[in-house]
Design brief:
CATH topology of the largest domain: Immunoglobulin-like
Mean pLDDT: 84
Shape: rod-shaped
Order of helices and strands: EEEEEEEEH
Helix content: 10-25%
CATH class of the largest domain: Mainly Beta
Low-confidence stretches: none
Distance between the termini: 107 Å
Largest sheet: 4 strands, antiparallel
C-alpha cells in the first residue's frame, strides 16, 4: 500500500506470507511498484541487485510496476554443503528524475533525482533440495528391482532335485 506522505518509495506486491514470514524464493515472479506521494510513477527505473552481483534494471509501466523472475544464484562449492535454509540478500533500487526549477543552498537547479532502496532476503526454491528425495526414491526403486530380478533369474534356473538310487533294483 502506497503512502501519500512519502515522496518516493518502492512497494512490493507480495514478498511475505499471511504471518509476515519471508516466502521469496528463487524462481518466484516478483512485482514491484514505484510511487510518489501515493501515485504510481511511470518510467521509473527499478533495479534488482543480488548478493552475487546479478543486476537487472527495468522501466516501470503506467501503473508504476515492473515484474521479474528471481534467478537462482546460490551455488555452494561442494553440493553436500547446500543448506535449504540459506538466506541470500538482494536490494531493490528505484530512481526517478523530476524536471522542476528550484533553489537549494543558494544554487539553482532545473531537475532533481530521487533514489530509494529496499533490502530483502530470499531462499533457495524448494525444487533445489527436493531433488534429494527424488534421487533417493529412484535409487531405492532401482535397487529393489535389481534384487528382484536376480532372485527371479536364480529361481528360474533352479533345477528340481532328482534323487537317483543305484542300489535299488528296478521292479519288473
Amino acid at each position: 500500500m502506497a503512502n501519500e506522505k512519502v515522496p518516493f518509495e518502492i512497494v512490493p506486491q507480495v514478498l511475505w506470507d499471511d504471518k509476515f514470514h519471508i516466502r521469496t524464493q528463487t524462481g518466484d515472479n516478483i512485482k514491484l511498484y514505484a510511487y510518489s506521494y501515493g501515485k504510481p510513477l511511470e518510467n521509473a527505473e527499478i533495479s534488482v541487485l543480488s548478493e552475487q552481483q546479478w543486476k537487472k534494471t527495468m522501466t516501470a509501466d503506467k501503473e508504476g510496476g515492473v515484474e521479474f523472475q528471481m534467478i537462482r544464484d546460490y551455488y555452494p562449492k561442494d553440493w553436500a554443503r547446500f543448506h535449504r535454509s540459506h538466506r541470500s540478500f538482494m536490494i531493490f533500487e528505484a530512481e526517478y528524475e523530476v524536471v522542476e526549477n528550484g533553489e537549494y543552498q543558494g544554487q539553482s537547479y532545473n531537475r532533481r533525482k530521487m533514489i530509494t532502496t529496499m533490502p530483502w532476503k530470499y531462499s533457495p526454491a524448494q525444487d533445489d533440495y527436493a531433488s534429494y528425495s527424488a534421487g533417493l526414491t529412484v535409487g531405492a526403486v532401482f535397487f529393489v528391482l535389481t534384487i528382484g530380478g536376480v532372485l527371479f533369474y536364480r529361481e528360474r534356473r533352479r533345477k528340481p532335485f532328482l534323487e537317483l538310487d543305484f542300489e535299488k533294483k528296478p521292479k519288473k
